[in-house]
Specification:
This protein is of the alpha+beta class and about 425 residues long. Strands 1, 2, 3, 4, 5 and 6 form a six-stranded mixed β-sheet that branches. Helix 2 crosses helix 3 and helix 16 crosses helix 19.
Length: about 425
Amino acid sequence: MIDSLFREMIEELPDFAPRVTEMIRTEIPPYSVVPEQEHIRAVTVQLHGLLDALDRGIMPSAEYLRAASRLGAARAAQGLPVETVLGAYHIGYRETWNALMRGAVRRGQEAVAELAGQVTTFWTWIQELTDAVAVAYETVLRSELSAQEDRYRRLIEAMAAADPADEATVTLARSLGYDPVGAFQAFRGRSADLPSGGLERFRRHTATGPGVVVATIHGGALSVLSQGVPDDAILRSLDRAVGRAPSRAASRAVDREVGHAGDRAVSQTADRAVSHAMDRAVGREGPPAPPLGVGLPRTGLSGAADSFQDADGALSLALRQDGGTVRYSVAWLQSSLAEQSRRLSDVLGAGARTAHAYPHLSAAVIAYADHGFIPTAAARALHVHPNTVVYRLDRWTTLTGWDPRTRDGLMRSLLALDLYPAPHTP
């Protein structure tokens, strides 16, 4: 009795399919990216296949499933989320079932009972079809993500090339949304410091903000290149990615520490103070701050390459200290020298050896530099008598040959302590 119902529905498809298409486009506005006539044709083909299969009592053929897979791949290429695509299928099949049931009701109770017996076939058929669509969609999506990841890596690798501003790199940068003549800022860390899923979380955080951010992992390094994004926004997103998001009170504590550090006479201590402030603020809320280097904002793709060199030097310095973030803009001298630390050991070795043997002497030098070169202020910070600070500075001078109360002696001392840090003991 219901065989004629299926055939009647097929004959009505020229009117029915456009109505279903309009319903899909109304309930799911993102489908506006699909041209309307193309959408109507796809709905017509899908519903014709379903109704014909029900009429003949067969499951979807391999050819039909391949066609559904091609449609799923096309929707992925059009940028529609997979849940949106499957939602559209369910709207179409819902309306088709409702129309079939109305036709069965008009035929009488026997037709209704007969159609009800087709429920299992109907939904099994739909399950096979939507599974094929979803698999094809995910295949295309993985392929696109892999291609995008490849573009990320190629751009970062181009930054180390002799001419990062060549035509191919300019084209690649534009394809990722960058303005090749705009300002870039680079960040470099270690991939091992990111927990599982950390890179994806970082990308999600930055994707919702302004500007363009590319982040990728290669050769054991985490590389980030941003344009039009404040560096503190990048750092906050990285903190969230590694599980170090501080509370509002913690953020205020860090801001106060940054302000204090900015007033210090010796710039290389500022980053160390900020990193330590973050560690104190976060406390037990997350792991210790991983080492991270932040390059200077620089113009153009050649500037982006220079910013990565900045970040590499800053990362080398961060690795030699207690981890945390080192900004090239603050510790530019130490960052520039960090990668030459092996060669400089012959120049600065006396300070390194003394600091490791007598960490209380290096602590006195740092406190003296951090507190306006005033022994009494340094003594208060170390909780010792001012004469003790004077004695320790003298002792440092005797052992190293560098008097931290002179410009040359202070510079050598602080470089040695930054490039070859020792335990901090008051």
